[in-house]
Specification:
The complex is a heterodimer of chains A (123) and B (229). Chain A is α+β, with helices and mostly antiparallel strands and 123 residues long. Chain A is 28% helix and 26% strand. Chain A contains three helices and seven strands. Classes of the chains: A alpha+beta (123), B alpha/beta (229). At the A-B interface, loops of A face loops of B.
Amino acid sequence: NGSLSNHNGVRRELKRLGMTFETENDTEVGAAFISHKLQSGETLGNALEATLTDLDGFFTFVVGTKNGFGVVRDPIACKPAVMAETDQYVAFGSEYRALVNLPGIETARVWEPEPATVYFWER
Amino acid sequence: MEIYDLAADGLRGLNASLHALKGTTNQTAWQVKNPKGAHAIAAGIDAPIDVTVLGSTGYYCAGMNKQATVRIKGSAGPGVAENMMSGTVIIDGDASQYAGATGRGGLLVIKGNASSRCGISMKGIEIVVHGNIGHMSAFMAQSGSLVVLGDAGEALGDSLYEARLFVRGSVKSLGADCIEKEMRPEHIALLADLLKRGEADHLARPEEFRRYGSARKLYTFNIDNAAAY
């Protein structure tokens, strides 16, 4: 989710580049931005890095692809985010409570992703 | 010992029981099992009791605490001990954002790391963090003390009033009107006491810390200082 301030300009540019939109929603622009990067051949990591320079506002993006999973928070990172990692999985939630019933959560590494830092895993 | 199973009996039952304990009670020791990240656990207590939460909590654990000692055997979500008036909160793990926010009294001890905005708008609370603190900590902190054995993130003490900040590790950057200040004997003594009460006197000595405080040009604003920001 996000609260983007430059989403109108980014939407116009992405439309020009061939992306289509269903709504006026700013988070949809975030999703389209990342999708466009991936379609252009960027890695998931680089697509998420680009959000930090090209998107303005508060956001936490969680992206799943066919073989990957990535998370990025804006540089101010006021919005909550927590992650858990074991040998078996990596999990994301906006609060710890969402993760409590995961197997092995008691011994998982639980941390809050750092601001402006891309975390991604790929098979 | 009163043992409360949060998963079985619910949050409202727990907090209602804790709120029913008026100034004097002989039910002074409580354990809360299966917290599972629930919010507002042990918020609003006003009694000199001891509550141990056996796991990690959600938001606002021990919020508005008065007189009680609340121990969290795990990590705490955002806003732990927010607006605490008195008493003690001790977290064995990490604390999420705005720990101790707007706290007016009492002692908050975080044995792991604290996240961003630790001690924001503190109004008398004392906070001792054994690990690191995140960015924008002690933002607009009015009074009280913040002691950090580890490192501090960006914009420490932005728009600071008279709260005292002591950091042993590195400070990524200082916020508006926050400056390093001289450590004098009274600060060493204050810090020694805080480290002791914060269960950190075996981890650090007062002499290892630097003191940060307000330059007093922003909250006692003079137009001549406008360029400083």
